[in-house]
Amino acid sequence: MAVGGCAPGIKLDRPQIALPTAYEATPGAAADQVALDRWWDRFGDAQLVELVDRALADSTDARTAYFRLREARAIRDQSLSQRLPTGNVTGSARIQSGEQFSGADLFGTTLTSKTYSAAFSPSWEIDLFGRLAAIGRGARANYVVAAYDYHAARISLAADVASALFDARGLLVQRNDATETRRIAEELAATSRLGLARGLVSGADTARLESDVATARAEVVRLDTALHNAKRSLLVLTGRADAPTDSLGIEAQLDAPPAVPATLPALLLTRRPDILSAEARVAAATAQVKVDRLALFPQLTLQGSGSITHTVGALGGTNGLWSLASGITLPILDRPRLMARLRATEAQGQQAVVAYEAAVQAAFRDADIALFTVTNDRPRLADLTRAEERSRFAFDAARRGYGIGLTDLTTLLQSERTWRAARTALTIARAQALTNVVSAFRALGGGWNPAAPATAPGHPPVPLPIAAEQPSTSTSPLS
């Protein structure tokens, strides 16, 4: 016992967490839990809901997360079984036959015996100092880590699908705008060619307009390519990588995004799976430190053995043998290696504490930036909308003036390019406003329900009793 008594006591540092009481921007009203669980329902967009739900069910990312969780659950069960007795049962059967000759018996007598035997050798480690209990706590903590990682993967997937859909819609709107720009350029070029034939327009002006036609056509091709690629990415995200892009209908609409619910920074500690996963990793590291520290203590093992043999036939009978012994292991010569391992484990635990602090800081950064961005999107969109309206009015006026000879070509082209730039900026901003709201929901920890089981097509659901599996606060430095 003196050997274990020299083992150093180790306690991981408490995480240093400092969060403000409120965000600098609060774009919406207070929200309940359900509003965040399935945030994509708040958009009122049937296609968005369908694509996100399909991705969460069929995508390779979702299925990979499911099987990682099943693996972690099996590893947990394997670790917990170490507290149970172990042992093997063996059995054998033997038949012997022979001839016995005596007296006048010329042919002899056949003697047959059958022997059956079975043996059992159990072994059980007595958890004197709590090493096996610490192993169990670590196994449960690692399972909790996997459960939160499962949810984090699905949160990212839902956000990626929504962002990809809004990007594709934005590209389609831009393509339609580019098609309109091409049509206008072709009309102006045709008018200029007629004027050139009548000697009313110079060849240089006509060439400039024909150059604009070629540029407009190239822009349509570029946007066609970008739209195709965006649709292909969206099909991959939803588990339909082999489907033709034409099977995915995209509408050229960019609706106003929903309001992001107002929450408090402190809620990140219970809503963000990455923070909860980091916390569970600290609990697992704490348990591992205790396991490695208790490896310096003696280990008591009970070992038993038993066998029974039954013989049928000549000299038949039954024999049994039982024994029970105990053994104690003292890690004397192995102590330097165990001490070095303990120091390494303690350093890994301190890294887990720092990683938890970093996760909290990163989560607050993400949420604060996302909410501030969403709040500023409103006046920005209003200004861009007005800029597009006024530049379009200016272009229409310049075009009418050019038709009656009151406006020169340079003024016309300049007004057309100004309107085109304003229109493109507005389209990009409207699509970006939608993806910014998606980022805000993601940053606030939306998109998951702790009570829902893990699922995958064709496989049984895996329950996620996260609250029940959460390691005891008495073993965690977060308590």
From TrEMBL:
Region (Disordered): 452-479
Main location: membrane
Family matches, as InterPro entries: MdtP/NodT-like, OMP_efflux
Membrane topology recorded in Swiss-Prot or TrEMBL: Lipid-anchor
Pfam families (alphabetical): OEP
Keyword line: Lipoprotein, Membrane, Palmitate, Transmembrane, Transmembrane beta strand
Subcellular location: Cell membrane
Domain of life, source organism: Bacteria
GO cellular component, one term: plasma membrane
Tagged with keyword Transmembrane: yes
Skewed-composition ranges (Polar residues): 470-479
UniProt KW Glycoprotein keyword: no
Family: Belongs to the outer membrane factor (OMF) (TC 1.B.17) family.
UniProt protein name: NodT family efflux transporter outer membrane factor (OMF) lipoprotein
Lineage: Bacteria, Pseudomonadati, Pseudomonadota, Alphaproteobacteria, Sphingomonadales
